[in-house]
Design brief:
Number of strands of chain B: 7
Distance between the termini of chain A: 46 Å
CATH topology of the largest domain in chain B: Umud Fragment, subunit A
Radius of gyration of chain A: 24 Å
Order of helices and strands of chain A: EHEEHHEHEEHEHEHHHHHEHEEHEEHE
Number of helices of chain B: 2
CATH superfamily of the largest domain in chain B: Umud Fragment, subunit A
Largest sheet of chain B: 7 strands, antiparallel
Largest interface: A-B, 47 and 48 residues
Order of helices and strands of chain B: HHEEEEEEE
Strand order of the largest sheet of chain B: 1-2-7-3-4-5-6
Strand content of chain A: 15-25%
Distance between the termini of chain B: 52 Å
Helix content of chain B: under 10%
Oligomer: heterodimer
Structural class of chain B: mainly beta
CATH architecture of the largest domain in chain B: Ribbon
Helix content of chain A: 25-40%
Number of helices of chain A: 14
Shape of chain B: globular
Strand order of the largest sheet of chain A: 5-6-1-7-8
CATH architecture of the largest domain in chain A: 2-Layer Sandwich
Radius of gyration of chain B: 22 Å
Number of strands of chain A: 14
Strand content of chain B: 25-35%
Number of domains of chain B: 2
Shape of chain A: globular
CATH superfamily of the largest domain in chain A: Reverse transcriptase/Diguanylate cyclase domain
CATH class of the largest domain in chain B: Mainly Beta
Number of domains of chain A: 3
CATH class of the largest domain in chain A: Alpha Beta
């Protein structure tokens, strides 16, 4: 059996851990740069606030009803996410946890007897909430897709136990009949419309289609897997939990549109330093660096696209590197190339790809002493920044003014990651 | 080399001790005899944190628990996985506020006792919103606060909405 553990309105839940006064009160969390609403507590949903609508559209409802609003505090969410995942690993064994996203994990519960699944799901829910303060719902089914079906029902129907277990064929049939194909995990909008054209509406109806039909009509092997999963046959494997990232990107929206090359270069330098830090953390080196900017769009223009059109330039590196100064140099040159005078930008980013294991940290007789020293310098830099925070040491090209910094008007303290922002008790 | 000392002093955590952390292992292929005896240093986390995902830090504001040795500005280590039982010092949410008090299970119901005569006990009644957060397992009191000044950029003003 598989389970999905899913944090309920995760970001809102995180904001509440240190704010008991917000218990059972409406809360919303805004995306980077305070643009859109990305997390809504159930109480706020009751006011008709929807996911992903721009903040300014909901501002009136929010202010009239005293809905607590927060900018995204990713330091806090990241820390609590790690706590939730660590708790799950403690409960069911590290090898049985697949972290699927910041607030979701699949569990392999093959070792739990079927008659104990209800109890097990409740236990997981209780321990995670007790230990971390984050409330979770748990869906259990024979396969990943079925566990997702179960979880969706428990959330949608706001079941008090926050668990839903498909431990029998009857329970599974009932759940599939209540689930529309468009709500199935892995069925995109395009296929959902197609299915409805063929008069297939519920997951139950889809389950009874045969595999050959799915291969021909539902994107080949992906469709076959979907049918198999719905029929209780494992087809989507648990992922290897310890895969290093194949690509590292750091990108942010600017607080206000930026038009100055100096500001763009400062931002790009800062992102490069951050990406290089991530790179070193997983002991990789990059062989390709790309820099992109997104010009700010005229709202209402004919070719408007959500998120804008990025313009990218890339450069292959002479030899793979993880050293910040070796990356900043090409990044600066690329920033100058993507920049056009007179244009205003809403976003910039850096991507490092072509990742290979970093050999500069291994003992190497044939390497110049200088490159080993560079590596020590990076270690020192990472350690100092890690222990003292706030990028206490940084490259001069990253600048000190940060005209381009993103907007975070409603950010809460970083309660769990900064000594000087700890929650006070009386 | 001078920076070597600087490097070693920086905190890296001791749980992930790798070959790269042994500096003398670099390049020569022989290593130093001392590497065979390389050992993890003492790590305060091992002693003070029993359950990492459930451990949270708080800062004491006020003198309500002065009698229990918790002074204004001290850091409290709180284990959320440990349940409040009679006589334990806990952090709890009371009517939307977070307080630290000694938990007492009385005949009329639980109450929260300060360790300072100037504070009344908080009786947990039928209409009290009471939710224990966790057990205070340690308190850190720093004498030489000046030494930590480099950590202390001005704290952000807490925002309430």
């Amino acid at each position: 059996m598989k389970a999905i553990v899913d944090c309920n309105s995760f970001y809102c839940s995180c904001e509440r851990v240190f704010r008991p006064d917000l218990e059972e009160k409406p809360v919303v969390v805004l995306s980077n740069n305070d643009g859109c609403i990305i997390s809504i507590s159930n109480e706020a949903k009751n006011y008709g606030i929807d996911m992903a609508i721009p903040y300014y559209q909901a501002k009136d409802i929010i202010e009239q009803n005293g809905i607590s609003t927060f900018s995204s505090n990713y330091n806090l969410y990241g820390d609590l996410s790690r706590r939730v995942m660590d708790t799950l690993k403690y409960l069911v064994g590290e090898e049985n946890v697949e972290v699927y996203s910041v607030d979701e994990a699949f569990l392999d519960l093959t070792h739990i007897p079927v008659e104990e699944l209800h109890q097990c799901a409740a236990h997981i829910r209780d321990v995670v909430e007790q230990w971390t303060g984050v409330s979770v719902s748990v869906g259990v089914g024979k396969t990943k897709v079925l566990s997702k079906v179960a979880n969706r029902l428990s959330k949608k129907l706001r079941v008090a136990s926050k668990t839903w277990v498909l431990d029998t064929d009857e329970a599974t049939a009932d759940a599939l009949q209540r689930t529309h194909v468009k709500d199935l995990w892995g069925i995109g909008r395009r296929y959902a419309l197609k299915l409805m054209d063929w008069n297939i509406h519920t997951a139950w109806e889809l389950k009874h289609m045969n595999e050959e039909w799915a291969r021909a009509n539902l994107g080949g092997v992906i469709g076959v897997r979907m049918i198999q999963e719905l029929n209780g046959k494992h087809s989507i494997e648990m992922r290897d939990p310890l895969v290093n990232k194949k690509m590292i990107a750091t990108t942010r929206m600017f607080g206000a549109a930026v038009s100055d090359l100096k500001d763009i270069k400062e931002a790009v330098a800062t992102y490069t330093a951050r990406a290089a830090e991530k790179l070193r953390r997983q002991h990789s080196a990059a062989s390709l660096i790309s820099v992109f900017v997104v010009p700010k769009q005229q709202s209402g223009s004919a070719d408007y696209r959500h998120g804008g059109y990025p313009r990218t330039r890339y450069q292959t590196l002479y030899s793979p590197t993880s050293l910040t100064h070796e990356l900043i140099k090409p990044a600066m040159a690329l920033a100058e190339k993507v920049y056009k005078d007179g244009e205003r930008y809403s976003k910039a980013g850096v991507m490092l790809s072509g990742l290979v294991p970093d050999t500069s940290i291994q003992a190497n007789l044939f390497k110049s002493a200088a490159s080993n020293q560079s590596r020590w310098l990076m270690n020192m830099l990472d350690n100092i920044n890690f222990s003292m925070r706030d990028d206490i040491i940084k490259y001069a090209s990253a600048g000190t003014e940060k005209n381009w910094k993103m907007r975070q008007d409603f950010i809460s303290p970083r309660y769990t990651t900064r000594w000087n922002e700890l929650r006070e008790v009386k | 080399m001078e920076w070597e000392n600087f490097y070693s002093a920086s905190y890296e955590g001791t749980r992930h001790f790798t070959q790269q952390d042994v500096q003398t292992a670099n390049a020569t292929g022989f290593g130093a005899a001392a590497d065979d005896y390389a050992e993890r240093g003492i790590d305060l986390n091992e002693q003070l944190i029993y359950n990492k995902p459930a451990t949270f830090f708080f800062r004491m504001n006020g003198d309500a628990m002065i009698g229990a040795g918790i002074q204004n500005g001290d850091v409290l280590i709180v284990d959320k996985s440990l349940k409040a039982t009679n006589g334990k010092i806990i952090v709890a949410a009371v009517n939307g506020d977070l307080v630290v008090r000694r938990f007492q299970q009385g005949i009329k119901g639980p109450s929260l006792i300060a360790e300072n005569g100037r504070y009344e006990p908080i009786e947990v009644g039928e209409f009290t919103q009471f939710n224990p957060f966790g057990l205070v397992t340690c308190v850190i009191h720093i004498f030489e606060k000046g030494l930590l000044d480099h950590h202390r950029t001005p704290a952000k003003k807490k925002k309430h909405h």
